[in-house]
Specification:
Layout (H helix, E strand, L loop, with lengths): L7 H20 L4 H20 L3
Length: about 55
Amino acid sequence: MSSKQPDPKTRQQIDENLKRVFEHQLQEELPDRFKDLLSQLKAQDAAKGQGSKK
């Protein structure tokens, strides 16, 4: 693999394409399964926080 950096025009095109892909991903809603997992993690953190208080 070459360690040569792409020219500025190519680099700009790569940056624009990556931004387009990530912007599209940000517009998609989080799947229910992930929402459920996040809720479970928050509940665990809350339980641990209450258990360590004196």
